[in-house]
Write a structure and sequence with these properties.
single chain, mainly alpha, 87% helix, elongated
């Protein structure tokens, strides 16, 4: 049973962090090389698509981490699992406060609106997103050490 849960948690949070990493390291740098109207359209499409899927993925990752924490609460792994779960929860809250509003504006923007302010907003989102990826990666390291991988 624990093996299946460990595998599900590892896949869920690992693939999510990988997706977020790819956006930060590969997708956004390519988007920045496009002309303004293509940038705006691409950002709007990514914001809408990922904005629809990621809340469920983040929630599932959190639920799996909490399940791991509860099941291993009386082991030496408990502290690291609590840390991973707490970091994950904090990231979700900060994402809702800081990143989601920017993402929603980007998803609704018109191509003609993509100048100055909108570009600065996207760069701000990208900087916050990179920090989020680093923090989520730290949470995953805590989780992996806890389960003995």
């Amino acid at each position: 049973m624990m093996l299946i849960l460990n595998l599900a948690t590892t896949l869920c949070i690992g693939l999510m962090i990988g997706t977020e990493f790819a956006v930060s390291v590969f997708v956004n740098p390519v988007i920045y090389t496009l002309d303004e109207s293509t940038q705006a359209r691409t950002i709007r499409l990514f914001a809408a698509r990922l904005g629809a899927a990621m809340p469920f993925w983040y929630a599932l990752g959190f639920v799996l981490l909490v399940a791991e924490t509860i099941l291993l609460r009386h082991t030496a792994a408990a502290g690291l699992l609590v840390a991973a779960s707490a970091v994950w929860a904090i990231v979700i809250v900060l994402t809702l406060i800081l990143l989601v509003p920017i993402n929603n504006r980007m998803a609704r923007m018109e191509t003609s609106d993509f100048h100055g302010y909108a570009q600065r907003e996207h760069h701000k989102w990208d900087r916050l997103h990179r920090l989020r990826v680093a923090v989520l990666s730290a949470a995953m390291v805590c989780f992996l050490i806890a389960i003995g991988v």
